[in-house]
Sequence to fold (567 residues):
Amino acid sequence: MSRSASARIVGQVLNDRYEILEKIGEGGMAVAYRGRDRVLGRVVAIKVMRPELAGDAAFVGRFRREARAAAGVTHEHIAGVYDTGSDGDYHYIVMEYVEGQSLSDRLRREGALPLAEVLRIGTEAAEALEAAHEAGIVHRDIKPHNVLLGRDGQVKVTDFGIARAAAGAGQADTSTIMGSVHYISPEQARGEAVGPQGDLYSLGAMLFQMLTGRPPFEDGDKLAIVHKHVYDVPPHVRELRPEVPPEVDSVVAHCLEKDLSRRFASARELLSYLGACPRSEDAAALSWPGRWARRTGRAARGAGRWARQRAVWGLLVVVLVAGAVIGMSMLATARGRASMVPVPDVQGMSEAAARQLLAEVNLSYREVGTRPSDGVAEGCVLSQTPTAGLELARDGLVKVVLSSGPSHAVVPDVTRMSVTQAQRNLEAAGVVAGGVREAYDAAVPKDYVMGTLPAAGTRVVRSTAVDMVVSLGPERALPGGQTLPGGTGPGEGREYTLNFTVPAAGPGEEEVDVTVEVVDEHGSRIIYQGRHVAGERIPPQSIKVVTATTARILVDGEVRARRQYLP
Fold:
């Protein structure tokens, strides 16, 4: 979006609801603005697609689908997605506004960060990735720019699914991916499918930069850096910052493994190792008595006998002091270990049961978010951090993610119901009552529902808006035996049944949006919308043809088939 276009949109109100206040940033796919939701009276972030992408119907459909998927995951370390929509040429996503700064801004200003702060930020980002990965969402573009730090320092990872949408729409790696070359995983650089472990590699590169002040590879142009991610072994953190504990160095090195079998298998596994890392750099300096003794020995060489005896006594003192320090440290450690308790397994438990079990072992409970699950009942614990079996100090905190129930819902059959009753049934099934359309139907009484879009029986993402088609009753005859536009006279027209098998929309795609649109001399209308996987048949659609009619089948907004019908 050009500077002039960005200036023009400031001050506008999208769909009579979202007021654009000021530009706050931009990326390869969208421009970000601070805005205000006039309905709920809150400040939001609004990402408006660039015009060159907004004209691509396939990208728009995929962009919205990824936004809906991200909106299904609620977590304290994920910037929430509130809404997505269009207003004329503007296609946008409304997100949580985080007051603060990005991690990239902080690194640019401060360079390397304190160890404890690095581990806190890394842990909270890994918790966000764990929640997203459990919901089947891979970020694909983890970098400091997409990690926001609130006023209180809390981490919020943003832009889940946007990189996937861009890649699926043919957005070249040279724009989307090349902008993130310092954090790109080897498999993504090779153009291969990117799974959760790709996000862990990128997080490892981010940890490396937070600890050392520079990314693992930085010399050369973008293509040279991509080549290094694929073929070169990155330096160890301790080569650049020796005071970092070996445990932390090892965690970063395992994140940056090129071989997936040697990289952490999941964010949950990474979290268990991050939780065991020392938070102080003093651990790396425990060898100071030895260095001091060596320096003392070198200084004493060439001195007289009295000086050598003095050095011996000095060395003995050093040894005794070191022994006392080590003994006190071991005693403190033993006392500390005595105050540690193993974390119980609360996964699958109800919220009340999990709280009670943790309280019994002197641990605290905190819910950090929800996400869909087909295997864990709504309101029960889906995942926990730290994982069961690890030890935690008494009064320590166990964070849990609760299940929000099945990730999909089936559109119920609400035909011949009143609008009010149909709305209740739709909401009870896990979908949302959308708009109301009207059509003539002699078989369904006036003001009663004659169908839905998507049709009954369609499997959709929970909270999908389902439009109702409400009957206007029988058509009113006009002079000369004609009917109102769009209707058919007695005996006119011909019935057809449209059958369609969903093709794959692109590599790596799972579910796709399918729309059936009918076009005749009276205009166009949508007769079916639903989500399907490749190879699945949509419910048969009955078409009554009065004039030459075309049925268009769109997959993720792209026309994939046309059928011609004659009366």
